[in-house]
Amino acid sequence: MFAYIDEAGHTGKNNSDITQPVFYYLCILTNQNIDITLKDDISFIKAKYGITELHGSELSDKIEYISKDILQILQKISPHFFISIVDKEYLSYTKLFDTLFDNVENKGARPHTYQFRPFRIMLLNNLCYITPIEVAYNFYQNCLFGSKEEDAITVLIETCDAILSRTFLLKDERSKELISDALIWAKNNPKEITAFNTRKIDRWRHLPHVVSFLPLMDMISRYSKKEKSPIRKIVHDEQQQIKKVISEIHALASDKKLPAILNLRENGSYDLTNIKESIFEIKDSKNSIGLQIVDFCLYLLTHSEYVAENRNDLMNSYALLDFIMPRGEVFDFTMESFKSESATMYKKIMEHEYSEEELQKGKDMIKIIEDNYRKQKGDT
Predict the structure, then answer these.
(1) How many helices (H) and strands (E) does the chain have?
(2) What global pTM score does this model have?
(3) Can you tell me the mean pLDDT for 43-69?
(4) In the chain, where are the structural domains located?
Protein backbone atom coordinates (compact mmCIF):
# COMPACT_ATOMS: atom_id res chain seq x y z
CA MET A 1 0.00 0.00 0.00
CA PHE A 2 1.00 3.63 -0.51
CA ALA A 3 0.64 6.42 2.06
CA TYR A 4 0.62 10.16 1.35
CA ILE A 5 0.92 12.59 4.27
CA ASP A 6 0.44 16.34 4.46
CA GLU A 7 0.05 18.78 7.35
CA ALA A 8 -1.74 21.97 8.29
CA GLY A 9 -1.29 24.41 11.14
CA HIS A 10 2.50 24.27 11.29
CA THR A 11 3.72 27.33 13.21
CA GLY A 12 7.12 26.09 14.37
CA LYS A 13 7.69 26.71 18.09
CA ASN A 14 5.01 29.42 18.16
CA ASN A 15 2.24 27.45 19.85
CA SER A 16 0.47 30.66 20.86
CA ASP A 17 -0.47 31.66 17.29
CA ILE A 18 -4.22 32.22 17.72
CA THR A 19 -4.83 31.97 13.97
CA GLN A 20 -3.61 28.33 13.90
CA PRO A 21 -4.28 26.77 17.33
CA VAL A 22 -4.40 23.21 16.01
CA PHE A 23 -1.91 21.07 14.09
CA TYR A 24 -3.26 18.48 11.65
CA TYR A 25 -1.82 15.52 9.81
CA LEU A 26 -3.83 13.82 7.08
CA CYS A 27 -2.77 10.58 5.48
CA ILE A 28 -4.41 8.96 2.46
CA LEU A 29 -3.70 5.24 2.25
CA THR A 30 -4.44 3.28 -0.91
CA ASN A 31 -3.30 0.20 -2.76
CA GLN A 32 -2.32 2.34 -5.73
CA ASN A 33 0.67 4.55 -6.44
CA ILE A 34 -1.39 7.70 -6.90
CA ASP A 35 1.53 9.66 -8.31
CA ILE A 36 1.38 7.36 -11.30
CA THR A 37 -2.19 6.09 -11.62
CA LEU A 38 -3.95 9.45 -11.17
CA LYS A 39 -1.50 11.60 -13.07
CA ASP A 40 -3.73 11.97 -16.14
CA ASP A 41 -6.86 12.60 -14.06
CA ILE A 42 -5.24 15.43 -12.11
CA SER A 43 -3.69 16.91 -15.26
CA PHE A 44 -7.19 17.05 -16.75
CA ILE A 45 -8.54 18.83 -13.65
CA LYS A 46 -5.71 21.36 -13.69
CA ALA A 47 -6.31 22.14 -17.35
CA LYS A 48 -10.07 22.32 -16.79
CA TYR A 49 -9.79 24.95 -14.06
CA GLY A 50 -6.63 26.69 -15.28
CA ILE A 51 -4.50 25.88 -12.25
CA THR A 52 -0.96 24.56 -11.87
CA GLU A 53 -1.32 22.81 -8.50
CA LEU A 54 -4.03 21.45 -6.20
CA HIS A 55 -3.28 23.66 -3.21
CA GLY A 56 -6.43 24.18 -1.15
CA SER A 57 -5.64 27.56 0.38
CA GLU A 58 -4.94 29.06 -3.07
CA LEU A 59 -8.02 27.81 -4.95
CA SER A 60 -10.65 30.11 -3.43
CA ASP A 61 -14.14 29.62 -4.91
CA LYS A 62 -12.85 26.94 -7.30
CA ILE A 63 -12.74 24.48 -4.39
CA GLU A 64 -16.48 23.85 -4.61
CA TYR A 65 -16.27 22.86 -8.28
CA ILE A 66 -13.05 20.86 -7.99
CA SER A 67 -14.47 18.91 -5.04
CA LYS A 68 -16.84 17.09 -7.38
CA ASP A 69 -13.97 15.96 -9.61
CA ILE A 70 -11.81 14.90 -6.64
CA LEU A 71 -14.69 12.88 -5.20
CA GLN A 72 -15.11 10.99 -8.46
CA ILE A 73 -11.41 10.19 -8.52
CA LEU A 74 -11.32 9.01 -4.90
CA GLN A 75 -14.37 6.83 -5.41
CA LYS A 76 -12.40 4.93 -8.04
CA ILE A 77 -9.47 4.09 -5.75
CA SER A 78 -11.38 3.61 -2.42
CA PRO A 79 -8.71 5.07 -0.12
CA HIS A 80 -8.70 5.15 3.68
CA PHE A 81 -7.99 8.33 5.64
CA PHE A 82 -6.03 8.86 8.87
CA ILE A 83 -6.15 12.13 10.79
CA SER A 84 -3.91 13.33 13.63
CA ILE A 85 -5.12 16.34 15.60
CA VAL A 86 -2.83 18.09 18.08
CA ASP A 87 -4.17 20.97 20.14
CA LYS A 88 -1.18 23.27 20.72
CA GLU A 89 -2.56 24.52 24.04
CA TYR A 90 -2.77 20.96 25.35
CA LEU A 91 0.64 20.14 23.87
CA SER A 92 2.18 23.07 25.76
CA TYR A 93 0.72 21.85 29.05
CA THR A 94 1.81 18.24 28.51
CA LYS A 95 5.35 19.29 27.60
CA LEU A 96 5.47 21.38 30.76
CA PHE A 97 4.28 18.43 32.82
CA ASP A 98 6.59 15.90 31.14
CA THR A 99 9.61 18.13 31.75
CA LEU A 100 8.98 19.14 35.35
CA PHE A 101 7.23 16.08 36.81
CA ASP A 102 9.38 13.26 35.44
CA ASN A 103 10.33 11.49 38.67
CA VAL A 104 13.45 9.96 37.10
CA GLU A 105 15.03 13.42 36.82
CA ASN A 106 13.05 15.33 39.42
CA LYS A 107 13.72 14.00 42.90
CA GLY A 108 10.86 16.11 44.20
CA ALA A 109 8.27 14.35 42.04
CA ARG A 110 6.48 11.26 43.25
CA PRO A 111 6.79 8.29 40.85
CA HIS A 112 3.10 7.34 40.86
CA THR A 113 2.06 10.82 39.68
CA TYR A 114 4.12 10.34 36.52
CA GLN A 115 4.31 6.60 35.92
CA PHE A 116 0.63 5.67 36.37
CA ARG A 117 -1.88 7.19 34.00
CA PRO A 118 -4.83 7.81 36.39
CA PHE A 119 -2.61 9.72 38.84
CA ARG A 120 -0.87 11.55 36.01
CA ILE A 121 -4.18 12.60 34.44
CA MET A 122 -5.52 13.89 37.77
CA LEU A 123 -2.38 15.88 38.57
CA LEU A 124 -2.08 17.29 35.05
CA ASN A 125 -5.70 18.38 35.24
CA ASN A 126 -4.96 20.32 38.44
CA LEU A 127 -1.77 21.76 36.95
CA CYS A 128 -3.73 23.06 33.95
CA TYR A 129 -6.31 24.57 36.30
CA ILE A 130 -3.80 26.76 38.15
CA THR A 131 -1.38 27.50 35.29
CA PRO A 132 -2.29 30.35 32.89
CA ILE A 133 -1.87 29.24 29.30
CA GLU A 134 0.57 32.14 28.75
CA VAL A 135 2.92 30.52 31.26
CA ALA A 136 2.74 27.17 29.44
CA TYR A 137 3.30 28.84 26.06
CA ASN A 138 6.29 30.76 27.37
CA PHE A 139 7.84 27.60 28.82
CA TYR A 140 7.32 25.72 25.55
CA GLN A 141 8.69 28.44 23.30
CA ASN A 142 11.47 29.97 25.38
CA CYS A 143 12.63 27.10 27.58
CA LEU A 144 12.25 23.96 25.48
CA PHE A 145 13.26 25.85 22.34
CA GLY A 146 15.81 28.09 24.04
CA SER A 147 19.07 28.42 22.11
CA LYS A 148 21.13 29.13 25.26
CA GLU A 149 21.15 27.01 28.40
CA GLU A 150 21.19 29.97 30.77
CA ASP A 151 18.13 31.44 29.05
CA ALA A 152 16.29 28.12 29.26
CA ILE A 153 17.12 27.80 32.97
CA THR A 154 15.89 31.34 33.61
CA VAL A 155 12.54 30.53 32.01
CA LEU A 156 12.31 27.22 33.89
CA ILE A 157 12.77 29.00 37.24
CA GLU A 158 10.32 31.76 36.28
CA THR A 159 7.78 29.10 35.30
CA CYS A 160 8.11 27.29 38.62
CA ASP A 161 7.67 30.57 40.51
CA ALA A 162 4.63 31.52 38.45
CA ILE A 163 2.88 28.21 39.15
CA LEU A 164 3.91 28.07 42.81
CA SER A 165 2.33 31.51 43.32
CA ARG A 166 -1.01 30.03 42.25
CA THR A 167 -1.12 26.75 44.18
CA PHE A 168 -3.42 28.48 46.69
CA LEU A 169 -6.16 28.02 44.07
CA LEU A 170 -6.14 24.27 44.65
CA LYS A 171 -8.77 23.00 47.06
CA ASP A 172 -7.06 19.62 47.31
CA GLU A 173 -4.17 19.89 49.79
CA ARG A 174 -2.54 16.70 48.54
CA SER A 175 -2.39 18.02 44.96
CA LYS A 176 -0.95 21.26 46.28
CA GLU A 177 1.77 19.29 48.09
CA LEU A 178 2.61 17.09 45.08
CA ILE A 179 2.84 20.02 42.67
CA SER A 180 4.76 22.26 45.08
CA ASP A 181 7.35 19.63 46.01
CA ALA A 182 8.14 18.88 42.36
CA LEU A 183 8.37 22.53 41.33
CA ILE A 184 10.49 23.59 44.31
CA TRP A 185 12.99 20.81 43.58
CA ALA A 186 13.08 21.68 39.87
CA LYS A 187 13.58 25.37 40.70
CA ASN A 188 16.46 24.58 43.05
CA ASN A 189 18.06 22.00 40.73
CA PRO A 190 17.36 23.30 37.19
CA LYS A 191 20.42 21.69 35.61
CA GLU A 192 19.16 18.25 36.65
CA ILE A 193 16.07 18.73 34.46
CA THR A 194 16.40 18.10 30.72
CA ALA A 195 14.82 21.33 29.53
CA PHE A 196 17.60 22.46 27.23
CA ASN A 197 18.99 20.75 24.13
CA THR A 198 22.18 21.90 22.45
CA ARG A 199 21.23 20.55 19.02
CA LYS A 200 18.41 22.19 17.10
CA ILE A 201 17.20 18.79 15.88
CA ASP A 202 16.61 17.74 19.49
CA ARG A 203 14.61 20.90 20.15
CA TRP A 204 12.45 20.18 17.09
CA ARG A 205 11.39 16.90 18.73
CA HIS A 206 8.98 18.94 20.83
CA LEU A 207 7.00 19.96 17.73
CA PRO A 208 3.47 18.58 17.21
CA HIS A 209 4.74 16.64 14.19
CA VAL A 210 6.66 14.30 16.46
CA VAL A 211 3.76 13.87 18.90
CA SER A 212 1.44 12.75 16.12
CA PHE A 213 3.74 11.01 13.63
CA LEU A 214 4.22 7.69 15.46
CA PRO A 215 0.48 7.35 16.25
CA LEU A 216 -0.12 7.99 12.54
CA MET A 217 2.32 5.19 11.67
CA ASP A 218 0.51 2.94 14.12
CA MET A 219 -2.88 3.62 12.54
CA ILE A 220 -1.76 2.95 8.97
CA SER A 221 0.19 -0.13 10.03
CA ARG A 222 -2.81 -1.64 11.82
CA TYR A 223 -5.11 -0.93 8.89
CA SER A 224 -2.74 -2.39 6.30
CA LYS A 225 -2.27 -5.41 8.57
CA LYS A 226 -6.03 -5.92 8.60
CA GLU A 227 -6.06 -5.61 4.82
CA LYS A 228 -3.13 -8.06 4.62
CA SER A 229 -1.14 -5.62 2.51
CA PRO A 230 2.08 -4.10 3.95
CA ILE A 231 3.00 -0.45 3.48
CA ARG A 232 5.36 -0.21 0.55
CA LYS A 233 6.00 3.52 0.46
CA ILE A 234 5.25 6.59 2.62
CA VAL A 235 5.43 10.01 0.97
CA HIS A 236 5.56 13.06 3.26
CA ASP A 237 5.23 16.68 2.18
CA GLU A 238 8.52 18.55 2.36
CA GLN A 239 9.19 20.59 5.50
CA GLN A 240 12.82 21.50 6.02
CA GLN A 241 12.51 22.08 9.79
CA ILE A 242 11.30 18.59 10.58
CA LYS A 243 12.74 16.64 7.65
CA LYS A 244 15.56 15.02 9.62
CA VAL A 245 13.50 14.34 12.75
CA ILE A 246 10.64 12.65 10.90
CA SER A 247 13.07 10.65 8.77
CA GLU A 248 14.82 9.39 11.91
CA ILE A 249 11.51 8.33 13.49
CA HIS A 250 10.53 6.41 10.37
CA ALA A 251 14.00 4.82 10.16
CA LEU A 252 13.61 3.46 13.69
CA ALA A 253 9.99 2.42 13.21
CA SER A 254 10.71 0.62 9.93
CA ASP A 255 13.92 -1.09 11.08
CA LYS A 256 13.22 -4.80 10.87
CA LYS A 257 15.79 -5.49 13.60
CA LEU A 258 13.81 -3.46 16.14
CA PRO A 259 10.56 -4.63 17.82
CA ALA A 260 7.42 -4.29 15.74
CA ILE A 261 5.23 -3.80 18.81
CA LEU A 262 6.02 -0.96 21.20
CA ASN A 263 4.32 -1.69 24.51
CA LEU A 264 3.27 1.49 26.31
CA ARG A 265 1.65 -0.46 29.15
CA GLU A 266 -1.53 1.30 30.31
CA ASN A 267 -1.18 3.80 27.46
CA GLY A 268 -1.67 1.07 24.88
CA SER A 269 0.83 0.07 22.23
CA TYR A 270 2.11 0.95 18.77
CA ASP A 271 1.96 -1.79 16.17
CA LEU A 272 4.48 -1.02 13.44
CA THR A 273 4.51 -4.48 11.86
CA ASN A 274 3.31 -3.41 8.42
CA ILE A 275 5.64 -0.48 7.93
CA LYS A 276 8.79 -2.53 8.45
CA GLU A 277 11.18 -2.00 5.53
CA SER A 278 8.86 0.58 3.96
CA ILE A 279 10.35 3.35 1.84
CA PHE A 280 10.07 6.88 3.23
CA GLU A 281 10.29 9.85 0.90
CA ILE A 282 10.15 13.58 1.65
CA LYS A 283 8.79 15.20 -1.47
CA ASP A 284 7.79 18.62 -2.76
CA SER A 285 4.02 18.56 -3.32
CA LYS A 286 4.56 20.05 -6.78
CA ASN A 287 6.05 16.72 -7.76
CA SER A 288 3.44 14.49 -6.12
CA ILE A 289 -0.16 14.01 -7.24
CA GLY A 290 -0.88 12.13 -4.03
CA LEU A 291 0.30 14.99 -1.81
CA GLN A 292 -1.75 17.51 -3.76
CA ILE A 293 -4.91 15.45 -3.26
CA VAL A 294 -4.14 15.16 0.47
CA ASP A 295 -3.60 18.94 0.63
CA PHE A 296 -6.98 19.54 -1.01
CA CYS A 297 -8.81 17.14 1.31
CA LEU A 298 -7.01 18.51 4.37
CA TYR A 299 -8.09 22.04 3.50
CA LEU A 300 -11.70 20.92 3.47
CA LEU A 301 -11.30 19.03 6.75
CA THR A 302 -9.88 22.08 8.50
CA HIS A 303 -12.86 24.09 7.23
CA SER A 304 -15.45 21.38 7.84
CA GLU A 305 -17.56 23.49 10.22
CA TYR A 306 -17.92 26.21 7.61
CA VAL A 307 -18.76 23.67 4.92
CA ALA A 308 -21.38 22.03 7.15
CA GLU A 309 -22.98 25.39 8.01
CA ASN A 310 -23.20 26.24 4.29
CA ARG A 311 -23.90 22.77 2.96
CA ASN A 312 -26.75 23.95 0.72
CA ASP A 313 -24.38 26.26 -1.14
CA LEU A 314 -21.37 23.93 -0.92
CA MET A 315 -22.97 20.64 -1.88
CA ASN A 316 -19.88 19.26 -3.66
CA SER A 317 -17.53 20.14 -0.81
CA TYR A 318 -19.95 18.63 1.69
CA ALA A 319 -20.27 15.47 -0.40
CA LEU A 320 -16.49 15.06 -0.46
CA LEU A 321 -16.29 15.46 3.32
CA ASP A 322 -19.14 13.00 3.65
CA PHE A 323 -17.04 10.52 1.68
CA ILE A 324 -13.90 11.10 3.77
CA MET A 325 -15.26 11.02 7.32
CA PRO A 326 -16.72 7.47 7.42
CA ARG A 327 -13.46 6.17 5.94
CA GLY A 328 -11.28 7.97 8.47
CA GLU A 329 -9.57 7.16 11.77
CA VAL A 330 -8.47 9.85 14.22
CA PHE A 331 -5.66 10.33 16.71
CA ASP A 332 -7.00 12.99 19.06
CA PHE A 333 -4.48 14.88 21.21
CA THR A 334 -6.63 17.79 22.32
CA MET A 335 -7.65 19.56 25.50
CA GLU A 336 -11.23 18.56 24.83
CA SER A 337 -10.42 14.83 24.74
CA PHE A 338 -8.17 15.20 27.80
CA LYS A 339 -10.90 16.92 29.80
CA SER A 340 -13.34 14.21 28.78
CA GLU A 341 -10.96 11.45 29.90
CA SER A 342 -10.20 13.30 33.12
CA ALA A 343 -13.90 13.75 33.97
CA THR A 344 -14.65 10.09 33.19
CA MET A 345 -11.75 8.93 35.32
CA TYR A 346 -12.71 11.20 38.22
CA LYS A 347 -16.33 10.01 38.09
CA LYS A 348 -15.24 6.37 38.07
CA ILE A 349 -12.95 6.89 41.07
CA MET A 350 -15.50 8.83 43.10
CA GLU A 351 -18.38 6.42 42.41
CA HIS A 352 -16.44 3.22 43.04
CA GLU A 353 -17.11 1.58 46.40
CA TYR A 354 -13.72 0.55 47.73
CA SER A 355 -13.38 -2.32 50.17
CA GLU A 356 -11.36 -1.93 53.35
CA GLU A 357 -8.76 -4.22 51.83
CA GLU A 358 -8.45 -2.02 48.73
CA LEU A 359 -8.20 1.14 50.82
CA GLN A 360 -5.53 -0.36 53.03
CA LYS A 361 -3.58 -1.56 50.02
CA GLY A 362 -3.63 1.98 48.64
CA LYS A 363 -2.51 3.48 51.94
CA ASP A 364 0.36 0.98 52.15
CA MET A 365 1.48 1.83 48.63
CA ILE A 366 1.46 5.57 49.34
CA LYS A 367 3.38 5.03 52.59
CA ILE A 368 6.12 3.18 50.72
CA ILE A 369 6.28 5.95 48.11
CA GLU A 370 6.44 8.65 50.78
CA ASP A 371 9.11 6.80 52.79
CA ASN A 372 11.25 6.44 49.68
CA TYR A 373 10.64 10.08 48.81
CA ARG A 374 11.86 11.27 52.21
CA LYS A 375 14.91 9.00 52.08
CA GLN A 376 15.76 10.33 48.62
CA LYS A 377 15.56 13.90 49.92
CA GLY A 378 17.62 12.99 52.97
CA ASP A 379 14.78 13.67 55.42
CA THR A 380 14.68 11.69 58.62
Answers:
(1) 17, 8
(2) 0.92
(3) 93
(4) 2-85+210-329, 89-201+336-377
